[in-house]
Amino acid sequence: MKFTINRTAFLRYFNDVSRAIPSKTAISILTGLKLDLTNDGLQLTGSNADISIESFLPVSDEELDLQVESVGAVVLSARFFGEVVKRLPDETFTFDVQDNFQTVLTSGQSEFTINGFDANNYPRLPEIEEQNELKINADILHDLINQTVLAVSNQESRPILTGVHFLIDGNGLLAVATDSHRLAQRRLDLENITGTYNLVIPGKSLLELGRMLADLKEDVSLKINENQVLFSFGNTKFYSRLLEGNYPDTTKLIPTDANTTLQLAAGDLLSAIDRASLLSHASRSNVVRLILNPANNVATLSSTSPDVGTTEENLQIATLSGEELDISFNPDYMKDALRAFGATDIILAFTTNLRPFTLYPSEDKEHYIQLITPVRTFN
Q1: What CATH number did the domain enclosing 111 receive?
Q2: Mean residue pLDDT across the chain
Q3: Burial level of 39, CB count in 10 A (0-12/13-18/19+)?
Q4: In this structure, are residues 88 and 6 in contact, taking their beta carbons and an 8 Å threshold?
Q5: pTM for the full model?
Q6: Are residues 159 and 227 in the same domain?
Q7: How many domains does the structure of the chain reveal?
């Protein structure tokens, strides 16, 4: 197996695939990068058993300048191989697998010999049928991930909550995540869906996928089987295992009415809570207090730390209506929620100071909504 390739272009693909490669694992070969060379191009594969990523580098891509001398396959220690390639002196390097899978990298006057492993010992990736394929714009899928994955649980005591629940049917795609303290729900309108799919994708998988989709301007193909989901885009395939079990019914958690509503810019509220959290983080309770007085059209945000001091700020609001309210909440949950809205006006809808409240864009409640459980305080 021997080829020459542009180093910078190669590293772009390598960096994507390496997202799936663990530094330590019980299956030692999974710490390696699999390289499989044919006359059509070079395929890179990385896996940690939960997610697997394949990228194909075609000979036809002029930027890669891939020159194939002899085909074959090998597995190399991903961490060491990547560090070597980053430091090679020339714009191109030559990759030559010799006896016993010893691999020689040459670039300019530099030469490295790396011990390789038999690619036949690398686990095979799952096969997912070409049927059951959906297409979603990469920008939209990237936003959906960012808007829901923030609410997944990091507690392994309830593994099913560490993922995002995807329900796909004739009404479109509904994505929901909750850690029992907060909830994020995003709906997409999709056309020509013939089947029904109910799956839970690990939040960690979606975080890595979201990073890869940033700035991508094309459709993403989604294929599903019993325990795997495959996202395909460009020359890359991203596999993730699915979580086993039934996701809890969250449909009844979101209140349908409100006694008090507040409308303001998400960015303004985020900045104010960020300031207030300087005090709340210095306190054991880590809560921020919001007092709403519709009669006077005043919304006041405050926070106290017995050891540090206090802060109080009147918010710049668009509208405030309903009953008076005095409510406390975790500022970190609120900051996560507000970042997901971006630069838009939002509505906060409250029932009582002890019941979960909702946040949604002022112009579109149907497609995106978040829910946060308040914190009980004793004044």
Answers
A1: 3.10.150.10
A2: 93
A3: exposed
A4: no
A5: 0.91
A6: yes
A7: 3
